[in-house]
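Appendix C reproduces, verbatim, an entry submitted by the partner laboratory led by Prof. M.T., so that reviewers can inspect both the input and the predicted structure.
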Amino acid sequence: MRVPLRCLGAYDSKLYRVSFLAGKGRYVLARLLLLFIVVPLVELVLLMVVADKTHWWFAVSLVIVTGIIGTLLARSQGSRAYRRIHDSISQGQIPTDSLIDAAMIFVAGALLLTPGMLTDMFGLSLLVPSCRDWYRRRLVRWFRARFTFHSESPEGPTSTTSKVIDSYVVPPATTTTVESGSDKPL
């Protein structure tokens, strides 16, 4: 067995071959087809149906207005998420929920700028905090089911019997000089 050449950025082609037509690659290809072909076609048909039922200018203006409103909402929600991230970091906490919210707000902004009604509805749902909480719970559950996380220090795994000692710095006391022959205590 050959060792991967990490320093050169090359791997043994027999061991690390990637194919989109074998194994899980088929599902990746199907998802990409769905994302880039089926979703835009459904968006186009839905836009044509709305234009047929109302008027073409209403359908176009609906897409433009949702894009503008979505951009404004994404901007305000994004600034709130940024403040929550900043507050968590300043308190010494890891801002996991706030980072996930910020990523979902970024995706919502991208979806709202994409012309279409389905993407606009999904993007707007990502901007609603209660919907975002539901999406976040599902996303965390999905990640926990598929990935395992381990943490190690550079010296290796840490022992569970380690103790944390809390300390603080005492400022030096002001010193006063005592004259010789003085009976005054310090």
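The two ends are 77 Å apart (CA to CA). Additional entries are available on request from the coordinating office.
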